[in-house]
Amino acid sequence: MIGKYLNGLLMLTLCCVSNADLVKQCAEQQKLATHLAQSCCELTRPSLDKGNAECRSSLNLPKRKFNFAERYTINMCIEECNYIASGYIDIDPPYRLDPVRIEENLQIIMPEPKTKSVKFMTETYSKCEKFRQHHASRFTLHLPDVEFIEQPCNPFALQITICMRIFAMQNCPREFFVNSKECNMTKNYFLNCVGDIGSNLS
């Protein structure tokens, strides 16, 4: 679900880097690693979720390039639309994930063996909801209004999705991880340069 905007949002997660050499290495790897994160773990590939394209189409976006604030707002609205349409959250806040609807959908879209893929992703949703409860402020951006977005959107779904992409890169099951030089570099980036999601749930 996360693409271009993950690169600009990693600064908002739990940064664990203090060594000067590692800071430099992380900075050099960031752009490539966040790009590859879309494909290195098979369980979080955007192609698995068809709802995002439908939600994007419903926004009737102008045909031009967007700045960071616009991209963030667009993706926030796309994620909210998709979560609501999928039954993951109610239309109105306070938002809480519906684990039953999530598991039902995962049983349809996840690759085999589903006993492992569905279990991992179900746990990932749960852990990221807990992570957000305690660290939502780290994901929050205060951005200007975007004129072509008619209705304001809540960042809840986008924050969950960002967390899931990071957690999946840190913990992707071996059978669903692309074992290549580039993907191993990407995994090391998320392990060494980004705070560990699993150990920060409280």
Description:
It is found in: Secreted. Belongs to the PBP/GOBP family. Keywords: Secreted, Signal. InterPro entries: Odorant-binding_protein. The structure is a single chain. The chain is an all-alpha fold and 202 residues long. It has one domain: Recoverin, domain 1, CATH 1.10.238.270. Helix content is 56%, strand content 0%. Helix 3 packs across helix 4 and helix 4 crosses helix 7. The longest helix has 26 residues. The radius of gyration is 16 Å and the shape is globular.
Summarize the structure.
It is found in: Secreted. With 202 residues, this protein is mainly α.
Q: In CATH, what is the class?
A: Mainly Alpha
Estimate the strand proportion: under 5%
Share of residues in helices: 55-70%
CATH topology heading: Recoverin, domain 1
The biggest beta sheet is recorded as: none
What shape does the CA trace take?
globular
Do you know the CATH architecture? Orthogonal Bundle
Number of domains: 1
DSSP E strands, number: 0
Radius of gyration: 16 Å
Mean pLDDT over the full residue set? 85
**Strand-and-helix sequence, N→C?**
HHHHHHHH
